[in-house]
Amino acid sequence: MMQLFKRWITLLALLSFLMAFTVQCHASYEEDSWAYNRQGMLKVSQGRLNEAIHDFEKACQINPYNDTALANLACARNNLGVIMAQQKKFDEAIRHFEAAKAQKPEEISIRLNLLSVLVNLKNANAVEREAREITCLRPKDVETGLKIAAALQKTENRSTAVLTLQDLASRVPDHAELHATIGRLLYSSGQLDDSAYHLKRSLELNPGDEEVKNLLKQLDRETSVEESTANYTGLHFNLTCPDSFSDAWANEVLELLEEAYEQVGQQLDFYPNQRSQVIIMQTEAFRKVHDLPEWAGGLYDGKIRLPVPARNTRPAAIKGAIMHEYTHHVVYLITSGNCPIWFNEGLAQIFENNHEKLDEFLNLPPGNFKSFGEIDSMFKHNPSRTTAASLYQTALAATAKIVADHTWAKIAGFLEYLGMGYDLNHAATEAFAVEIVELEKACLPLENIAQTE
Questions:
Q1: Would you give the DSSP letter of residue 389?
Q2: Distance between CA 302 and CA 356 in Å, rounded?
Q3: How many helices and strands (H and E) does the chain possess?
Q4: CATH architecture type of domain 1-121
Q5: pLDDT of residue 11
């Protein structure tokens, strides 16, 4: 009996030793994990992100329950992803964002960074997939929902953008900006009745929104002159025109649109994923609907809108206008609307007047403008016909000069940088290796520029 008791005492002593040893080991592991975490934070402060990531990973391996190290690991990967994206190393950026997302799946900023890179790559399927995941995480977050819709639009997925916002509006019914955005999208899609509902709802919630008021007025004008129309579907375009125009006329217009698709796409290295929408209206109706200067020969507002004097007007007569407005469409899609007016109009005129005659545009005398910024400002203030002619000619000559000096390939790159959100100077530096002021000196009269220095 005594011998059994001694064995029991020995076993208890051994168990106590093992428990103490386990506690000491666990404490040692925790201490090592925190040491690696502190080491990682030091390296983050020194900008050594790759090394910091290694330390944070080690901290998490030693102690999988160290939530601070895990959060720091996700943050470091996210920051490195941002740097890779800025350097246009998109595959590496995606790898870091995906890893960060796996470590902190609830962190929206990481997911939005990933979404931004996928948009830059024009990966429509991946953008839609990521957008759905973000929506599930933030089903009632209007700010995030609007960002998701913008990303979907940038990849030409307007229908999913509308559905996403309508679903959000069913959960957050009293948000003015949300209804206004849905209304604008539906208007651009030609769904006028549904657009009017959301715009009016937005005004009920925010009666002082002048932009929404003006869009409603334009929508009313468009409805008042609505004609019987016919719809035609081509390889890359949907065409709507008055049904008094013949099928042969419409098909010839579709052929001209396909020509624009090839020529602009070849030079700017971009072809839209979705069919582009084109609306033809008789000139009188066009002028009544759209509050534009009398010299305007077309409009791009997400759709290509063109006036035609009469049904006996040959399609060849509007070929230049087709090339012009289609160029605006492509530039908008590439840059997500972040293109200066002078450059946008310069490109549109080059294609309108035959891009193969670039040398002819170089000899055009520029107007008396001090900077590209001044040209943009004057374009926005409803210039007279004479001033508009000088603005357009200067934009054409300047843009042709830049194309001639830097090649179409670099022009396409410049537009891509603008689409990534770069400001004008940053985009010019990246694409042309010169600052915007140097481009101004090359394209505008030096005596004008000197006055501003």
A1: H
A2: 27
A3: 21, 5
A4: Alpha Horseshoe (1.25)
A5: 47
Question: What per-residue confidence (pLDDT) applies to 73?
Answer: 92
pLDDT of residue 452: 45
Write phi, then psi, for 79 (nearest 5 degrees).
-65, -40
pTM: 0.78
Residues 6 or more apart from 273 whose CB is under 8 A from it?
122, 124, 155, 156
Q: Helix, strand, coil proportions of the chain in percent (round to 5)? A: 70, 5, 25
Q: Is the Cβ–Cβ distance between 203 and 209 less than 8 Å?
A: yes
For residues 362 and 401, is the Cβ–Cβ distance under 8 A?
Answer: yes
Sheet with 276-282, strands from edge to edge, namely 229-233, 237-242, 276-282, 304-308, 299-300
Q: For the domain 228-327, what is the CATH superfamily, name and number?
A: Collagenase ColT, N-terminal domain (3.40.30.160)
Question: 């409805």: which residue's tokens?
Answer: 223
Residue 307 backbone phi and psi in degrees, to 5:
-90, 145
CA distance 186 to 189: 5
Each domain of the chain, given as residue ranges in start order, spans: 1-121, 228-327, 336-453
Q: Give the E-state strand segments of 175-334 in sequence order.
A: 229-233, 237-242, 276-282, 299-300, 304-308
Q: How many CA atoms are closer than 13 Å to the CA of 135, on its beta-carbon side?
A: 23
Mean pLDDT by 10 residues, the chain (453 residues): 48 46 52 85 90 89 89 93 90 95 93 94 92 95 96 90 96 96 89 92 95 90 75 93 91 97 96 90 78 72 86 88 96 93 96 92 87 92 87 94 96 93 92 94 70 45
Residue 336 φ/ψ, nearest 5 degrees: 55, 35
Predicted confidence at residue 16, as pLDDT, reads 52
